[in-house]
Each structure stands twice: as C-alpha cells, then as structure tokens.
Design a protein that fits this description.
Order of helices and strands: EEEHHEHHEHEHEHHEEEHEHHHHHH
Number of domains: 2
Number of helices: 15
Strand content: 5-15%
Helix content: 25-40%
Distance between the termini: 57 Å
Number of strands: 11
Strand order of the largest sheet: 4-1-2-3-7-6-5-8-11
Length: 443
Amino acid sequence: MPDPRQAATFRFVRADYADGEARLVYAFDDGPELVERIGFPDAPELPAGREAAFAAALRLLHFVAGISYYKAGVPRRIAVDGVAPDAETAQLLDTLYLHGLGEFAYQNGLDLREHIRFPRAGTHTPAAALDLPARSLLPIGGGKDSLVSVELLKRHGESATAVWVGNSPLIAACVVTTGLPGLNLRRQLAPELFEYNKAGAWNGHIPVTAINSAILVVAALLYGYDTIAFSNERSASSATLEYAGQAVNHQWSKGWEFERTLAAWLRSHVAADLNYCSLLRPLSELAVTRLFARESRYDAVFSSCNRNFRILGPRPADRWCGQCPKCHFVFLALAPFVPKPRLLAIFGRNLLDDESQQQGFDALLEFREHKPFECVGEGRESRAALYALSQRPEWREDALVARFRDVVLPQLDAAGLALEPLLRPEGPHGLPPRLAGVLDAFR
C-alpha cells in the first residue's frame, strides 16, 4: 500500500448520490480510490427545484469530509478533478483545514500553513430561497448540551427531529428518551484509511462537527428542513494554546467563527432560507449545566465521556470512564447545580474525592497545565465551580476541593471567581427570528 506521506497531491476525485447514499471519492496521487459512503435512510426523491442546491451541498460535503483523508499525508498540493471551487468556497475550505487541523498539526509537530491552499476558479450565482419547511434538525451527541436544546425547543413549540450520525446505542437511547422523532444517518469511512493509519500515516484530531454539519446540509435538502440547530456554547470559541503563529482550538468547528462563516456560505451558495446556528451560543458551559440540572429524566442515559464514541478501540464498561477530561469537567460543572447524591448516582463515584485525579483537574483549572484538548469549558469556569464548592459544607472536605482551597486558591484573585457573571448570556448568536425566543429561557 502506498505511503500517503510520500504523496505529492491529494485529489478530490468525484462525488455522486443515488438511492439514499452519497459516495465521496478521494485519492493520493494516482493511488487507489478512497471511497466514503454516507447513508440517508428512507430518503425521499429530491423535490423539484432543489437540484442546484443539492449539487452545491453534495460538493460541500465532498470537500469537508475529505479532511479525514487529507490529514493522512498532508501533501503540498490539493487538486480537484473537474471544476475547482469558487474563491469564496476555497477560502472557507482553506480556513477550515488550517484551523480544524490545528490540534493535529501541533500534536504531530507540523506546520500546515504552506500546505493548505484549495484551487479556485470563477464565481457563483447567489442561491435562491427554496421555501423549505419551517422545522429543525437537532443533532444529538449523547451529552448534556444537545439534551438542553431538546427541552428548549420543546418549550418553544418548535417542530424538530433528533438526528445523529453513526451507530451509537447510547445516542439512540438518548433520542428515545427525548420523545422526538429520530433520524439516524450512516457514515462509512473508506477502509483503506484504517490501513494507512496502521502503517504509520499521519493521524490525529479532525473537526468532526464540520463534517457532521455538511452531512446535515444534504439531509436538510433531502428531507425538508429549513434549520440545522447545533448545541455549541460560547466556551467552544476559546483556544487552548498558540502554535505556529495561530491559536489552536480543539473545538474550532464548534466555535462562533466557523458557525457564522458556514451559515453565510449556505445562504449564498445553497439556499437563502437555510439556517445554520447553535441554540446555546450565548451561554457558558456552566450556564448549560445549570439548565441541564433542572431536568433529571436524562440522568440514566446521557454521557459526555468520549470513550463511548470511539470508532476503534475499547469503550468503558459503563457510561462514564471517570478518568478523561470530559468526565472530569462534566462532573465539576454539574456539581454547583446538582444535589451531591444525584451527581454521585450519575457517575457512580466521587471524582473530587480521588487524589489520583489531581492532574486532570489541574488542567481544567489551567493551573500549571494548559487546558486539555477536549470539549471542556474555559479555565475560569472550572475555577469558579471549584471555588463555589469550596464554600459548601457537603463538598469542602473532599480531597481535591480541599486541595483547591489550601493550595490553588491562595494564588488566585478571589474577586474573579464568582459564578453568577459566568451564567449570564452574552456575545453574538445566529438564531433565526423564529427561534430568537429560545433565548428567553436563558434569562
């Protein structure tokens, strides 16, 4: 099998769609074709008038999903067999690949600034409105954020479908618990990618939210939805560190910059009445956990532990491994708002009374460590949460809370540790007028 790291060119070969399946084809140089398949179950015939929009959406999906394969070799030339993207599309892709692979580049000691440049040619005709049905596709990830969005949309009276990509029994159980209709889409990666990885190809983090977003754009046109409503909060826009002249953010494709850029591109290139937004954008992670704490119906089914969602490798025996940054952060973020017995019942243990977890929590605090490369809140949120617990009798004697009080707190400015300012909605959002009232629940 050829080594993609020796390739001179990464090629976008072709993309097609038939009978509920999109086929996305890539190659390194003139090597074997890498074929990814995306399944859309029981997809209806594409309604008349959506053909141009669907072609643009399929093309976007082809370009965005290609990041999974490009990173195996990161060659210096990107080629598109056929018509190159227009300048605006190429710029979106340049930005996505550079920042979406920022963590990958940092972990592998690579500088991708001279590698990533999509070919570009011509201009595009502005997209027209398609009179899409006024209803929302709501991606479900199995964690607290999307379940908060479910309850907000229910309260708002929005017609919504819970959608997820891949075969996750945990997510499927969450969807059943929501009571919403569900739509499970399939993504099958080219098997050669796993062989490349076994042989030592470049590997690491990719912007999965961007890929899922592109999949859902195709789904919105096929099934008829005018809104794709994610559940990304404002903390997702916060970078972890600086590397090779740019900020590195594990959650870049969950951040505001990507959201607003893709939303504008969709309105201009796909459909003028297609909305792409995040319901939780004005909220901090702590504000989201406060909302989640109001509803206990998901306690027995939700999980934010990413070890449950690995494509390969072992998964934890229960829903929470108790060792990873996501488990650490969700436990800490819920603790100020959930009665202690309820929280211990969710996790099956007290992570804050386990001295062996000290380094993990220090990283969340950004105390002698940088923030983990994970979907966790800002360091100031973790510090505020632990400070709140240090003032409460039921928590203050637990090992890591006591250590925070005795070791970390004397080195901090207590004036900046209040919870309340972090619970206020602030900053921009991209909610369409129909959903603007969802924000009322945040106040």
